[in-house]
Amino acid sequence: MTTFALLYSLHVLAAMIWVGGMFFAWMVLRPAAVSELQPPERLKLWAEVFRRFFHWVWASLLILPISGIGLWHMRFDSLAAAPRYVHVMAGLFLVMLALFLRIQLLQLPELRRTIAAQNWPEGGAILGHIRKLVGINLLLGLLVVALASARPLF
């Protein structure tokens, strides 16, 4: 396997883990949790889901920029020589990173605090904010995947 193929494979796998995990959470887990669990159990479930999933997101956040910059340097003579879609993908990654950090560093500690205090209404409101941010990140991630898939068209 060439270095390019290895970097590309790692890059795709990291993106698939992050975006696929958000898709599963949004489209499958969330509706099932809403229909089957009461708010206290649902909030506890989500806190545990985030704890486990975010380990994988952090791994993806390390792999994506390293592999992406490596691919960028191997494929193009300079950063400026890369096509526009590559710059757009890099910019969208930064937005997605910022949204993830907002969830991880601000929203998630608040969710844990409300669970510990058994303040279910406030916890539900915080989970609703997290859900919106994850939804935005999911849409951005799907856009990045679409850009990467359609790159011969650009």
3D structure, described in words:
With 154 residues, this protein is an all-alpha fold. Helix content is 87%, strand content 0%. It has helices spanning 3-36, 39-75, 84-116, 120-149. α2 runs antiparallel to α3 and α3 (84-116) runs antiparallel to α4 (120-149).
Alpha-carbon distance between the two ends = 27 Å
Q: With helices defined by DSSP (H or I, 4 residues minimum), what is the helix count?
A: 4
DSSP strand content:
under 5%
Q: What's the gyration radius in Å?
A: 18 Å
Summed over residues and divided by their number, the pLDDT gives a mean of 95
Report the structural category.
mainly alpha
Low-confidence stretches: none
Element pattern in H and E: HHHH
Q: Largest beta sheet, briefly? A: none
Number of strands: 0
Percent of residues in helices comes to over 70%
List the helices and strands and how they pair.
Blueprint: H1 3-36, H2 39-75, H3 84-116, H4 120-149
Key attributes of the depicted protein:
154 residues, mainly alpha, 0% strand, elongated
